[in-house]
Model the fold of this input.
Amino acid sequence: MLYSAAMGGVRRATWKQFMPFLGLNVLVSTLTILLVLAIFGRGPKLPTLPPTPTFDVSARLASAIPTATATLPPSPTPVTYTVKPGDSLGAIALELDISVESLMAANGLANPDALAVGQVLVIPEVEGSATDVPESDDAAASPTEEGAPQVVIRGAYERGDLQTEFVYLENVGGVATMLGWTLDDGEGNVFAFPSFTLYNGGGVNVYTRAGTNSVINLYWGFDQPLWTPGKQITLRDEAGASHSQFLVPSG
Done:
């Protein structure tokens, strides 16, 4: 009976008895994983692909659109005038309705008498003339090459300044031989023309101040301005007959 009881008894294993096996299993697994990683790490490495370039779509679109460029207007062609025989700077300025000073400045002239036939002058774009002087009663006369001379007073300009003050005369008739003709201010001051010929369409400036006469400029010889408002300028021929009159305006 005692034998039977001893033979039929079974003892259960505890968790402490399995710990060595578990530790061994973990160790083997770890070594296996390390071995596999070591083997595959020695193989050829895959090539590194360059990064795919990125595009700024908005920048590409902006560069494709043409940039608006301001179109500059073409430079205007300068207006020029070619000096003809009998021309004077004052006559040209009067004809083109600009001041003598503007004409001199545009062409770099220091002397208004320094003109040559054939010289090309640049005409500045200036609104109005420096002195607003009405024309004489004879201003509407048109040049006619034949017949008696018809010299008219076109006006008195740059008044009040002795250095620039002048009276401009123009011949709209036949050739005028002006030796003996006179210009007076109605107050006893008389300018006698020297030997001087004024052709059809030609003009001459009679300056108040002293100077050296030329084919386009004559000089009275006064030492102070002459043409004050209210004075009447009269042009007479060698016989004393009045050919033209001009009343100096105010202002």
The domain at 79-123 is CATH 3.10.350.10 (Membrane-bound Lytic Murein Transglycosylase D; Chain A).
